[in-house]
């Protein structure tokens, strides 16, 4: 038995445990009665510990080294590269530091849950300072093992081979573009007639029926997935059993409808990953957070907020809720779907202002991780960023630097993936249209097949065999280019 | 660190894995899309393998031996006894025999799924013969380790310390009692006015609402459990997150209603098991299948088919479905709940005839396991048993020895627990009434608290610290006595 095939067995086992964890996580968010929380935490900690032991067994370093010398085909070679990445991230950090980090994350998140409603950054500062110190220690260790800078080492956990130099190369021009563009978009919006909100209430059952209909249309396979309700929407489970969730607001059907389409984009990616032998191997998994987010945003922002799709969907939406009148016309619904507004809260932001929220966070977390900024200066620097990019100043830290859980829960290096995903979505959607002229007209008939076929061949089926950089270059003819995203924004918001 | 405390850590880990498996199992039966089956099988096999490795680690024999010599209190001592039992059942059988058994079970169950609809016992005979051979090998190995006979060694897997000599001591008189009693019960029934079926349909939503109301009344804690739908009803999950299921027949509300009460009995046992430290230890678990079945049957058969409870429940049932007329009167519903009929199918049998179905199976499986009978003679012996005990002869093997999955799936030594559970339920319910005169009158007010308080103190809270024998003797003043069950049947069916 080769070292390589022994490694495949190790990762098959860890994949089975990971899939089991996916079900437990989904159940916790959707089905579990509250009294099950403590036991569930114990179950998940036990399985995570076993998965960690599996991937960091003492013979893994030798097996990986031996396998490098064995004869492997292209996918096996790529699989070995991804195995090593997973091993480095799991094994690089000593156990006592991993434990200290987990405790600091939990303590800081608890402090944040009190500090946020009180808009009191000082209250969370000591816990956040401890946590950031440990995150930087982890980053430094991984940076050495990976041969990259400390920020890139953390980024690599979410976006394999992501590099901040490349992020800067696309965020710098975007940052220069945004303030003026947002100004123009708001002016263009003011020249158009104001959109009108269809009046509710919109019963949950009817919203769900509409969501299921759109999911089916988009190609969601209900033999391999489900739609349920959770407080924070997500796409979980595994490629052959993908579970998406949403939440319903009876005063606004659009949030769940677009949310379902967003998660459907994630699910279609999972469905389209390589099957068979690669299914349970690192190379068969989704590439990383940038490509994953590109798939959800391609569905939500590129395909389903298009005038073509909204024109098709308007009668379905009307029928779903028995709506009548001007508010239910396609043109009005389309304009409601692309409203622009400067706001303080990232998760409520529209397509035009969202990148500004992300760029601000990316600059700040990078400075903090690299030790170029003090945590005590975060609120001020945050507000300055909002003034500069969006022209608004948060009245307090609840609407400012306390709004997102990421940093307080230990996720540093995650934020840029949102906007990289949005830019990648625009570039992939443009390439799909260039490759098949039917892609956009078909959306006007509710036909997602041309789009899905292109995504299957050019994105989903690659799994993790290519880096994000190579995948985008092969699929679109060039690396990520901010001009494509900017052209999309201009076309949609200024024309 | 003592050997004993190291053992507690081992079993805490295996309990966490077992609880995770409980959620995966529940999800598979209630929520999982069909395309998830293969992946789920892989997940569950992986976790079962890890749990097995955990409990059979090479140092376990030494740890168990060392712990015997350490100073332990009563519960620790009982816990050590249960640890050893679990270890013997897990470690006694060599890995290749375990694998061969799993394959034979799977092959035989598949053959049975074809043979049953075709009523063709011969078709499954070769696979069943292979399976029985392996089951007997396993039984022989465990018999030696446990120092008991081969049948008792298999029985011990489901009913710890269950012994067929004691089963014979209660089944022999019951077998003598039943044929004449069934005759008398049918005659008594013929003298009463025939019961009338309330006319449906009974919408699923209304059945569910009624079920939830009755569960709450019985003391089901929805912070620690749920009710869902599955093809085969069960009680699963874990003590702090207990999931029961039912299935709804829109032509007959009583089957789901009584089914929900049955599973609620199982759930109340789980809720009442020792908390804290013992929660994750073998001594804190439910005692075995006999006590578990006694708790479901106590709820369904003893408490909820009583005239007192039916009188209370009739108006609730009427309101749930908007029923009107004589069919909805308490007396009619009570009489429908205690109809007696000789039939071929165990799972459709009533309280009076059910023990006959079980005793026939127990005699046959014991003879087969002990090598006193050939498999080829099973259909004939089966039909003879039905003729003798129930006075009816199955027209074919589909309605005969092919009806139950148990033997074909590898569960040998399980059947007697059903009727031992029914007898134990009668004896516990009688003791509860003797201890607290309010138990039965309270049922007439929908008040389960006196009953539950007695069960908590005398059954649930003991976990596995006592053997079933000792638990019954302490709770009722004597070992299991068929006279108590017979008296219950006479009172309900002949008076």
UniProtKB/TrEMBL annotation, chains A, B:
One of its GO terms (biological process) is proteolysis. The keyword Transmembrane helix does not apply. It comes from the Bacteria. Transmembrane segments: none annotated. The active site is at residue 263. It catalyses: Release of a C-terminal amino acid with broad specificity, except for -Pro. Binds 1 zinc ion per subunit. One of its GO terms (molecular function) is metallocarboxypeptidase activity. Its cofactor is Zn(2+). CDD domains: M32_Taq. Zn(2+) binds at residues 262, 266, 293. Its EC number is 3.4.17.19. Keywords: Carboxypeptidase, Hydrolase, Metal-binding, Metalloprotease, Protease, Zinc. Signal peptide: none annotated. It is an enzyme of class 3 (hydrolase). Broad specificity carboxypetidase that releases amino acids sequentially from the C-terminus, including neutral, aromatic, polar and basic residues. Belongs to the peptidase M32 family. This is Metal-dependent carboxypeptidase. The lineage of its organism: Bacteria, Pseudomonadati, Pseudomonadota, Alphaproteobacteria, Rhodospirillales.
């Amino acid at each position: 038995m080769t070292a390589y095939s022994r490694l495949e067995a190790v990762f098959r086992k860890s994949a089975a445990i990971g899939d089991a964890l996916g079900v437990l996580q989904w159940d916790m968010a959707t089905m579990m009665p509250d009294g099950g929380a403590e036991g569930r935490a114990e179950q998940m900690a036990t399985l995570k510990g076993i998965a960690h032991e599996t991937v960091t067994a003492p013979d893994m370093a030798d097996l990986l080294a031996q396998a490098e010398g064995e004869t492997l085909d292209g996918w096996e070679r790529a699989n070995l590269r991804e195995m090593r990445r997973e091993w480095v991230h799991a094994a690089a950090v000593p156990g006592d530091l991993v434990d200290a980090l987990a405790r600091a994350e939990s303590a800081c998140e608890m402090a944040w849950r009190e500090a946020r409603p009180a808009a009191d950054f000082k209250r969370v500062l000591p816990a956040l300072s401890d946590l950031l110190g440990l995150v930087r220690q982890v980053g430094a260790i991984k940076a050495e093992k990976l041969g990259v800078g400390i920020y890139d080492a953390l980024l690599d956990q979410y976006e394999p081979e992501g590099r901040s130099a490349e992020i800067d190369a696309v965020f710098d021009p975007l940052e220069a573009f945004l303030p003026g563009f947002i100004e123009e978009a708001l002016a263009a919006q003011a020249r158009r007639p104001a959109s009108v909100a269809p009046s509710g209430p919109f019963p949950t059952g009817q919203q769900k029926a509409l969501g299921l209909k759109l999911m089916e249309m988009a190609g969601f396979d209900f033999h391999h997935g489900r739609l349920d309700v959770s407080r924070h929407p997500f796409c979980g489970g595994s490629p052959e059993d993908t579970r998406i969730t949403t939440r319903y607001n009876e005063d606004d059907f659009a949030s769940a409808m677009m949310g379902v389409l967003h998660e459907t984009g994630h699910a279609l990616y999972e469905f389209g990953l390589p099957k068979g032998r690669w299914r349970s191997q690192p190379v068969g998994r989704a590439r990383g957070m940038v490509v994953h987010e590109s798939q959800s945003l391609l569905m939500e922002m590129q395909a389903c907020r298009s005038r073509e799709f909204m024109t098709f969907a308007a009668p379905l939406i009307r029928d779903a809720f028995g709506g009548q009148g001007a508010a239910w016309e396609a043109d009005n619904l389309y304009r409601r779907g692309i409203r622009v507004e400067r706001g303080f809260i990232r998760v409520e932001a529209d397509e035009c202002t969202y990148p500004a929220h992300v760029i601000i966070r990316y600059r700040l977390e990078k400075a903090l991780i690299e030790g170029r900024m003090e945590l005590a200066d975060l609120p001020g620097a945050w507000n300055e960023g909002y003034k500069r990019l969006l022209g608004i100043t948060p009245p307090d830290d609840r609407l400012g630097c306390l709004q997102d859980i990421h940093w307080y829960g230990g996720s540093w290096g995650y934020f840029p993936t949102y906007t990289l995903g949005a830019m990648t979505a625009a570039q992939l959607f443009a390439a799909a249209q260039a490759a098949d002229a039917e892609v956009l007209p078909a959306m006007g008939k509710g036909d997602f097949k041309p789009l899905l076929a292109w995504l299957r061949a050019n994105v989903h089926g690659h799994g993790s065999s290519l880096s994000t950089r190579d995948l985008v270059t092969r699929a679109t003819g060039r690396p990520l280019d901010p001009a494509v995203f900017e052209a999309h924004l201009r076309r949609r918001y200024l024309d």
